[in-house]
Amino acid sequence: MSQRISCPVCNRDIALSSINRHLDEGCPEEPNLSETSASGFFTLTKNKASAPSAPSLSANSGRSTINLSPAGGKDWLVSSPASKQSQQSQQKRTFSLPFQGSSHDAKKPDSGGGGTVFTKSFGDDVTADPDTPAAKRQKTNPARSAMPLAERVRPNTLNNIFGQDLVGPDGILRRMIESDSVKSMILWGGPGCGKTTIARTIAASTKARFVELSGTTNNIADCKKIFEQAKSELGLLGRKTILFIDEIHRFTKTQQDVFLAPVESGQVILIGATTENPSFKVQSALLSRCRVFTLKPLTTESTLKILNRALSTEFPEQSDIPPLLDDKLLTYLAEFASGDARTALNLLEISIQLASQPQTGSNQGFTQEDLKKALTKTLVYDRQGDGHYDTISAFHKSVRGNDPDAALYYLGRMIESGEDPLFISRRMMVMASEDIGLADNTLLPLATATHFAVQNVGMPEARINLAHCTVALCLAKKSTRAYRGLNNVLALLQSDPEAASAPIPLHLRNAPTTLMKTLGYGKEYKYPPNYVDGIVKQEYLPERLIGKKFLEDIDLGTRIDEEAYEEDGAGEV
Predict the structure, then answer these.
(1) One Pfam family name from the record (predicted)?
(2) What mean pLDDT comes out for the span 522-548?
(3) Is 114 exposed, middle or buried (0-12, 13-18, 19+ CB in 10 A)?
(4) Are 186 and 269 in contact (CB under 8 A)?
(5) pLDDT digits (tens, 9 = 90+) for 245-277
(6) Residue 474, exposed/middle/buried by CB under 10 A (0-12, 13-18, 19+)?
(7) 536 vs 486, 504, 511, 515, 549, CA distance in Å?
(8) β-bridge pairing 241-246 and 209-214
């Protein structure tokens, strides 16, 4: 039995004769790499018929090659130096993306760390673009068929990414990717604009090791494991590691400290994707070490290109496309998606299912208008993304603007889309103080009671309580005096450090001990309830702020919107 040693990168038990090849291949999962004879003349690779979708590894001059021969091939493949030379003349870089619509489902588990490690090799070109004939054969793959359409047609090349100038022909990000000079970056953009697709395209084109983690499912311990592996890879093999973290804003700013040292030292190249403004969600020290690329929402034209490409992938023969899925419907879907390619593709997938049903029974006479109505019931609303925040923002502003119709519309939209009703009632309690405030002190108890009702009554009946409070908030008089007064204080404290540290007047200080009393704490304090009408002459602000006024005398602002007066016929201003 050959001697075995522990791999310095992944700590697996590897045969001594295979350790170099194992390291060259980035620590593949297969521990029993076939051993090459001393002459190196023949190389044997076992092709498992029982697992047709799994790649087999063939030792080829110390370099492993992914062999994706279809099931039913020979049990053993024998290659001679002559055949190796023939293979080398056709060598191309390949990349295995198991959930990108690639031609196989080979996924290399990570060596600890909970992330997805994508592996590259040199051999036959197995990279599958949805536009190629290979993609048509993949439709028989059950795992691939189970994927959503948006994953099946995800682009593997920059040429198939539409709507983002950054990766266009003259895009700066494209030049960085093609020259393999990718640096740490933050990809900022709304849902479905191409952040993850661009990151995985980088993975397919770089020589570096690529690891993908998610801020929703991975933790700091996972990241630290990746950093340790990256350090070993860089030291032993001289190979860099690219770490892609989807939804990086899910890590708190304190947790983001863990990225600073590895990024600063060059152990990893960090690519973070976020739908939130990095200025608020990414730690400033980390932000200064990364370049921020802003991805814009897709235009209708770009979304339409994506839909047409997806339709061509699903129906290679033009005649197989259901008649209802014409250019008019695709344009409707592109406009309805509002710049979100994932939403557009999800709607297209539903449309394909509905339009492909036999025209019999209740489906007889099913028209494009019927299809549109069915799609409209599937409201486009993301409870975790921009749709979540945009809708509650519109709801709040409608209440502030005294428009009960608009407020009820956004309330209904959130309820129908499955928004958490407690999230809505909590925002109402904020509105009661922020926007109504001193103008009507009964609205905060009403909003609090509404929150209590939602907790104890539950949906769907609690929708009535929400509507009651919504209309009451809209019709109430508004006052932002208290809110503005606090903002005035905070503005002073942020602009004047001395104001924030001004000494508290001695007569206002607490004096629980004899020592504090001897120091003058609480001395000469006048207790207002002991005086007529509670009126006393006494200073409460620190000495350097005496006379400063924070609470304004007016409930609202003084600006005039002339358009509002003209529309209401209120006369000249």
Answers:
(1) AAA_assoc_2
(2) 88
(3) middle
(4) no
(5) 999 998 999 999 999 999 999 889 999 999 888
(6) buried
(7) 24, 19, 21, 27, 19
(8) parallel
Task: Please name the residue ranges forming H helices in 401-478.
Answer: 404-416, 421-431, 443-457, 462-475
The answer on pLDDT for 367 being more than 70 is yes
Q: What is the spatial distance between Cα 544 and Cα 547, in angstroms, rounded to a whole number?
A: 9
Nearest alpha carbon to residue 281 among 303, 304, 250: 250
Pick the CATH number of 386-475 from 1.10.1040.10, 3.30.1130.10, 3.40.50.2300, 1.20.272.10: 1.20.272.10
The C-alpha atoms of residue 261 and residue 227 are separated, in whole angstroms, by 10
Task: State the chain's mean pLDDT as an integer.
Answer: 77
User: Can you tell me the distance from the alpha carbon of 526 to that of 375, in angstroms, rounded to the nearest whole number?
Assistant: 70
Closest CA to 181 of 158, 207, 156: 207
Find out whether 230 and 269 touch, Cβ atoms under 8 Å: no
- Closest-CA residue to 346 (of 308, 320, 392, 307): 307
Predicted model pTM: 0.50
Q: What is the pLDDT of residues 152-190, one digit of tens each?
A: 999 988 888 999 999 988 899 999 988 888 899 999 998
Q: Which CATH number fits domain 91-296: 3.40.50.300, 3.90.1150.10, 3.40.50.10320, 3.30.300.30?
A: 3.40.50.300
